[in-house]
Design brief:
The complex is a heterodimer of chains A (117) and B (110). By secondary structure, chain A is mainly beta. Helices cover 0% and strands 51% of the residues of chain A. In chain A, the strands form two sheets. In chain A, strands 2, 4, 5, 6, 9, 10 and 11 form a seven-stranded mixed sheet that branches. Chain B has 110 residues and is an all-beta fold. In chain B, 0% of the residues lie in helices and 55% in strands. Chain B is built from no helices and eleven strands. In chain B, strands 2, 4, 5, 9, 10 and 11 form a six-stranded mixed sheet that branches. A five-stranded antiparallel sheet of chain B has the order 1-3-8-7-6, with no helix packed on it. The model of chain B has no long low-confidence stretch (mean pLDDT 92). Classes of the chains: A mainly beta (117), B mainly beta (110). The A-B interface holds A 1, 32, 34, 42-44, 46, 49, 91, 93, 97, 104-111, 113 and B 31-32, 34, 41-46, 49, 87, 91, 94-98, 100-103.
Chain lengths: 117, 110
Amino acid sequence: GAVVSQHPSRVICKSGTSVKIECRSLDFQATTMFWYRQFPKQSLMLMATSNEGSKATYEQGVEKDKFLINHASLTLSTLTVTSAHPEDSSFYICSARTHGTGSYEQYFGPGTRLTVT
Amino acid sequence: RKEVEQDPGPFNVPEGATVAFNCTYSNSASQSFFWYRQDCRKEPKLLMSVYSSGNEDGRFTAQLNRASQYISLLIRDSKLSDSATYLCVVNPNSWGKLQFGAGTQVVVTP
């Protein structure tokens, strides 16, 4: 299957700092990438949909100025958590959908565990 | 009502036994369905896609019942390595915004 990588896998930062998370599709081009957040014992919650070359579409309740998304190429999307606070501590996972019609399968990156102290 | 609902479990299954569980979805126009497996503190991994009336992959069988709006997953001859949380995932349209269930935990015991 398709491979998606994320970096870093784990990050600890102080409150008020910004953290950038990278999501890369390694062996395919991804016109669309998705960013999720998962709190312990809860399901994945979609934060935003990232389309290459255009602005991201954010889900209701997600602050676009706090969670900056850039999808500059067909293989890279970044999520920047600005002015992070302890309540932003979570497991952030990206996924990518392969290009082409009829392919609704999404492949997930290994996730980034963010801890804000 | 949640868009995708699952029994959280846990389903405690003796090794070698069969376990089955369902997932219901609210949008009758949903187009495609998936089962993902998620291990503790890891990302979800695609287990099976369920596009038509159902399909089988080794010990895993998924079925779709559009009339009653549910999909099921059956695991035969359970292995210890099958212990995980199984996520029911629904694609309600062609835009790719997946809807996730909260997951069903399966624990296979020796």
